[in-house]
């Protein structure tokens, strides 16, 4: 049997409506007409790859029964990497979740019985009704990652909970905090190097084999001879050709980058005019750390003031003709004041290269050379994606942004762009007086505050706060967890605490496509569509331009797989729990009939398109036509300029001295803090770091091509191996220095990892689900590095520490 496409599905819609006894989607799995089996019949439909969070533009091509992908080369972020190419294997994966499952054993035992959708959804909703009645809707938490991220506010607010808590504290919270403080920008794609035009790029803890659009843009820069520097305890694949690798001690990046700041200031290698014009370096700061305003010094303005060397007076920073960068003196009423630049200079002076060498293990001469090369070529320091590694990383990424500011590399050619933003509307917004949804519905306000930002106010999506609430009942109880397309066991810190939480919850639901580790702990497992089986309208992430894209639905689930669209699954759970609220947002009982759901999706899509059309003053039809035919639409092109326009910082400028940090009672300047895990002290104690490469991936680690390419060994430097008498391929046991957790793995001896450091790929191995079977059992081999961690989180932004330290014992050949 073969499957049919969306177009066929539309044609079939009428037929199906007549055959009311037949339930979608099973009935859609039909044999296509004979002539369509011919390779000559070609269909080429744009889709957005979902095999990692990058969302590249692909074409899904079908010639008869042959299906494959091509890159969408005109797309602002053209894709197609090995993970994308293998994604068809997720669709007809032998371990694919096929029917809703209900737990019959203990949590963790993975004993289930198959149930039908009605039973599963009704039982879940019955339980949720009890929980909501007893503890309030806020006791229900959704945790998720990329899948349905846009839909989450609508789903959660309709249920009445503010708690949709993403993966971000384990991903980008450190750099998001930094971007917020220095640039007033948001998550990783909101700023990134202008790769095409870059002259010199410093990557800190980035492998870059993630997000093909970037790799392709970078290729253009490579052809022009850009210099690439990878600061990383291990050498990733991207660092292997025509690049410099700087093996650094884990968790010391802030010291390295601040030392670069020191060299650049000391040797006057910064762009003084740019710094004066586009940053708040000239702001005058009082002894208590707060900025001087006109009012403070008796002027007729509430603006921040600078010292104007021409006027020889305190002048609004907006009006100054010749602001002083290095000025210190007495100001009326406020006493001694100094420019922000002088404070930065003094902070960076704590890290002269010789001192930084002691912290980072990078030779002082190297730090000096990189600083000089970077400044004289007006380079760019990449601002980070997965930056939650040591629970001290936000300072590193603040320093990275300051380095860019010092050389005038923000919103300039070859510098860091600040993304235009597509003005994509939210699916729902919670205002103090009411909730409004994309469908035009309104609901009473959400009373409870988010469980994460109560504890980590600066950046949301800190899952550890959910665990705390489950275990302690504080600040309010959390009783139900719905895990959607994300895997807390390979995602989050502190596995013991996660297990304790999963045992304690009153309801655990997992919505996934394959048996990830948390499936074993679920009361109900609900099989979702893979991305090729649903439509998705989204922004284009990794582009400076404002652009949107449409991923078309190209497949139905294969025979025997009764998967449903996760948006429907969640809306149905919500409707069956709180029918009146669901009706208020336009989601009524008629959508219980799954094949009517497309109407609701179409309504939502229409509203988004109308909103975009209004925001950009482009006809809906024009956007729609482009999305249908090419899969994307560019709303506005970014053009490099001399420096950024008004930023969303308190001053509107690049804030090398962060005024927002003062609101959080945080240090306005970055500094290096030692990471929270125990420092290796004995000869057999190591840092354990982890990361990615082309063949290791979020979402796709399950596909067959990838699974057998992945390296599940622990990388060890030859000198360490020799010292410990360990040979390539030997079996070792790792024991967490902080939590005593033990796990065994084989060693790969390679000089691609710094001495004293071990490296493993995250998500590649150490899988535990009892439902993993057959040749896929190889996924059990190797290490899950997260199991060696405790709840190490940065205050304010909750960025976690996923590196750790371990003791190594050889246990066999
Ligand atoms: N192939 C692939 N691509 C992906 C994904 C995937 O899973 N696989 N996931 C997507 C997602 S969600 C994200 S966030 C991005 C992430 O993409 P990146 O931000 O590029 O993150 P990683 O690829 O994990 O690279 C982490 C690197 O940091 C190094 N490292 C570890 N600790 C330290 C440290 O203390 N200091 C320094 N300087 N380096 C350190 C590791 O050795 C590793 O080489 O990739 C996206 N694309
Ligand atoms: N030690 C360590 N920890 C890390 C990282 C690291 O590099 N090292 N990286 C961190 C980062 S940057 C991130 S983003 C997180 C990522 O962590 P997760 O968000 O957990 O990402 P994945 O591991 O890719 O899990 C994705 C899940 O989605 C499922 N899935 C795939 N397609 C679909 C679909 O269409 N629908 C549904 N419902 N499910 C689907 C997959 O089967 C898988 O279970 O991990 C973080 N944790
Ligand atoms: S980089 Fe990520 S989104 Fe892009 S093609 Fe590869 S897996 Fe897909
Ligand atoms: Mo991530």
Automatic annotation (TrEMBL):
GO molecular function: 4 iron, 4 sulfur cluster binding; metal ion binding; molybdopterin cofactor binding; oxidoreductase activity
Source superkingdom: Archaea
Span of domain 4Fe-4S Mo/W bis-MGD-type: 42-93
Record InterPro entries: Asp_de-COase-like_dom_sf, MoPterin_dinucl-bd_dom, Mopterin_OxRdtase, Mopterin_OxRdtase_4Fe-4S_dom, Prok_Mopterin_Oxidored
Transmembrane segments: none
Alphabetized UniProt keyword annotations: 4Fe-4S, Iron, Iron-sulfur, Metal-binding, Molybdenum, Oxidoreductase, Signal
PANTHER family xrefs: TETRATHIONATE REDUCTASE SUBUNIT A, TRIMETHYLAMINE-N-OXIDE REDUCTASE
Recorded family membership: Belongs to the prokaryotic molybdopterin-containing oxidoreductase family.
Record-given protein name: Molybdopterin-dependent oxidoreductase
The organism of origin for this protein: Infirmifilum lucidum
Organism lineage string: Archaea, Thermoproteota, Thermoprotei, Thermofilales, Thermofilaceae
């Amino acid at each position: 049997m073969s499957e049919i496409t969306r177009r066929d599905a539309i044609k079939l819609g009428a037929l199906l409506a007549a055959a009311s006894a037949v339930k979608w989607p099973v009935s859609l799995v039909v044999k296509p007409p004979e002539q369509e089996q011919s390779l000559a019949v070609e269909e080429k439909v744009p889709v957005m790859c979902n095999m990692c969070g990058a969302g590249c533009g692909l074409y899904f091509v079908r010639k008869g029964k042959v299906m494959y992908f091509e890159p969408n080369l005109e797309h602002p972020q053209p894709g197609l990497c090995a993970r994308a190419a293998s994604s068809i294997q997720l669709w007809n994966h032998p371990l694919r979740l096929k029917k809703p499952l209900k737990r019959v054993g203990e949590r963790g035992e993975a004993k289930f019985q198959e149930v039908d959708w009605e039973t599963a959804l009704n039982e879940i909703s019955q339980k949720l009704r009890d929980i909501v009645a007893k503890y309030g809707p806020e006791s229900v938490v959704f945790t998720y990652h990329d899948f349905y991220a846009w839909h989450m506010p609508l789903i959660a607010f309709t249920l009445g909970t503010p708690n949709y808590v993403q993966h971000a504290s384990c991903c980008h919270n450190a750099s998001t905090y930094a971007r917020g403080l220095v640039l007033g920008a948001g998550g990783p794609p909101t700023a990134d190097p202008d790769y095409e035009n870059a002259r010199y790029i410093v990557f800190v803890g980035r492998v870059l084999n993630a997000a093909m659009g970037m790799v392709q843009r970078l290729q253009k820069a490579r052809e022009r001879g850009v210099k690439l520097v990878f600061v990383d305890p291990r050498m990733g694949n991207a660092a292997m050709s025509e690049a410099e690798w700087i093996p650094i001690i884990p968790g010391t990046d802030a010291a390295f980058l601040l030392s670069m700041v020191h060299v650049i200031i000391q040797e006057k290698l910064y762009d003084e005019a740019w710094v004066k014009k586009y940053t708040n370096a000239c702001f005058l700061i009082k002894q208590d750390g707060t900025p001087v305003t006109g009012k403070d010094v008796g002027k007729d303005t509430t603006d921040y003031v600078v010292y104007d060397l021409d006027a020889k007076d305190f002048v609004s920073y907006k009006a100054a003709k010749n602001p002083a960068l290095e000025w210190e003196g007495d100001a009326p009423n406020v006493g001694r004041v100094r420019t922000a630049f002088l404070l930065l200079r003094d902070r960076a002076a704590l890290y002269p290269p010789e001192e930084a060498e002691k912290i980072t293990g990078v030779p002082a001469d190297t730090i000096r050379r990189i600083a000089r090369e970077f400044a004289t070529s007006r380079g760019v320091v990449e601002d980070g994606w997965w930056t939650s590694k040591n629970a001290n990383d936000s300072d590193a990424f603040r320093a990275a942004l300051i380095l860019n500011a010092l050389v005038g590399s923000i919103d300039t050619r070859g510098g860091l762009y600040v993304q235009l933003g597509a003005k994509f509307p939210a699916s729902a917004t919670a205002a103090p007086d009411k909730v409004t949804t994309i469908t035009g519905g309104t609901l009473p306000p959400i009373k409870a505050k988010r469980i994460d930002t109560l504890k980590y106010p600066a950046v949301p999506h800190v899952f550890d706060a959910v665990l705390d609430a489950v275990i302690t009942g504080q600040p309010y109880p959390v009783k139900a967890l719905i895990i959607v397309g994300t895997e807390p066991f390979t995602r989050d810190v502190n596995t013991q605490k996660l297990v304790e939480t999963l045992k304690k919850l009153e309801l655990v639901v997992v919505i996934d496509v394959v048996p990830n580790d948390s499936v074993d702990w679920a009361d109900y497992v609900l099989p979702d569509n893979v991305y090729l089986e649903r439509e998705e309208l989204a922004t284009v992430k990794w582009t400076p331009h404002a652009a949107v894209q449409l991923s078309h639905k190209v497949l139905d689930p294969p025979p025997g797989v009764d998967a449903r669209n996760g948006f429907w699954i969640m809306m149905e759970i919500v409707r069956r729990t709180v029918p009146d609220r669901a009706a208020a947002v336009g989601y009524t009982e008629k959508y219980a009939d799954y094949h009517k759901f497309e109407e609701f999706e179409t309504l939502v899509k229409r509203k988004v398109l109308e909103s975009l059309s209004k925001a950009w003053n482009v006809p809906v039809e024009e956007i729609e036509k482009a999305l249908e035919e090419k899969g994307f639409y560019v709303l506005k092109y970014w053009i490099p300029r001399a420096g950024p326009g008004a930023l969303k910082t308190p001053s509107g400028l690049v804030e090398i001295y962060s005024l927002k940090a003062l609101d959080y009672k945080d240090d306005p300047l970055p500094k290096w803090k030692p990471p929270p895990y125990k420092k290796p002290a004995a000869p057999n104690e190591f840092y354990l770091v982890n990361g990615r490469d082309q063949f290791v991936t979020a979402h796709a680690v399950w596909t067959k091509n990838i699974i057998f390419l992945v390296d599940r060994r622990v990388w060890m430097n030859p000198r360490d191996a020799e010292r410990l008498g360990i040979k390539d391929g030997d079996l070792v046991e790792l024991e967490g220095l902080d939590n005593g957790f033990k796990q065994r793995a084989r060693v790969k001896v390679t000089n691609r990892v710094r001495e004293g450091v071990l490296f493993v790929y995250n998500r590649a191995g150490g899988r535990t689900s009892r439902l993993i079977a057959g040749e896929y059992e190889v996924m059990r081999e190797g290490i899950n590095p997260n199991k060696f961690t405790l709840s190490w989180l940065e205050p304010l932004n909750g960025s976690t520490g996923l590196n750790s330290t371990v003791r190594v014992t050889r246990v066999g050949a």
